């Protein structure tokens, strides 16, 4: 009986091998493939698709962020980008108009309502995963009493933190509209940027907290008079949680706050209302949002007067200004929020602040925001 069972198994194996050999073979698909010249080739096996297009909003040289793809005889669609700067790029396929992630690529980046495939183009030493000591990034779930539900944030701890020694300053880093708490560490490469800066001795070892700036899937602007849910969550839950669960140095001189786009607006909302708690403030591609009164025919951004009124006690408190060591703005010359940044800088000067404003090349993209983080972090906790 045992010999018969063994013979039957061998026969089935042989038959399976014959069937496999006779079946049409799926061609190997490599996607994405980065060349030495920093072009990226994307491929997708979709023999029955009628149209396939690649979308990648931050990749320079693509018309409106779209890359046409061509179908080969083997059913594989293929498209190659122009030469691109080193960095990380999100992308997705549109298959017959339906968005799809790259099934051959496990690397991904989250946003507020969906996920993206991601490709890393090496070549910038300050943003690459170098041979230096690395910190750790944790996805941390906490209960928000302000919002009555569980929430998530990402927390970077510097190299050596796990050894249980020492306390560290804390940097709260906020993302932009449509993104989430994952974005700064995935497409933003914040962990690697901090690793490289700390290894080079140009930035102090620090804890970086990256919370979820959206409190719902809605992307619409907050209506006038509505509750600011994120600020409530940040002040009531995020800061107390972090400063009681991590080994942090206390005091204004050990706290920094920065954000990009929507997160830059949130940085100003929170930082200028709690100026006594932050010694370092950074605003990337952003400013105070809202619609203030304009003179006839003017299209220039105007700061809503109520924004200043609500924060007057902090804005006009001369005793608090010396403790604000850095107030730093950076926006690209092609950024649609450049006017908002400039209006905000002028408003703060009117209140006797001394903001530093840097106008850079480029627009409203991660290519700039990674640069801004790399330049801002070394300014902290000096």
Automatic annotation (TrEMBL):
Keyword flag Signal: yes
CDD domains referenced in this protein's UniProt entry, alphabetically: E_set_Esterase_like_N (cd11294)
Example GO BP: carbohydrate metabolic process
Domain Glycoside hydrolase family 13 N-terminal: 38-96
One Gene Ontology molecular-function label: hydrolase activity, hydrolyzing O-glycosyl compounds
Pfam families referenced in this protein's UniProt entry, alphabetically: CBM_48 (PF02922), Esterase (PF00756)
Signal peptide location: 1-21
Recorded superkingdom: Bacteria
Keywords, alphabetical: Signal
Keyword Transmembrane helix: no
Protein name in UniProt: Esterase
UniProt organism field: Paludibaculum fermentans
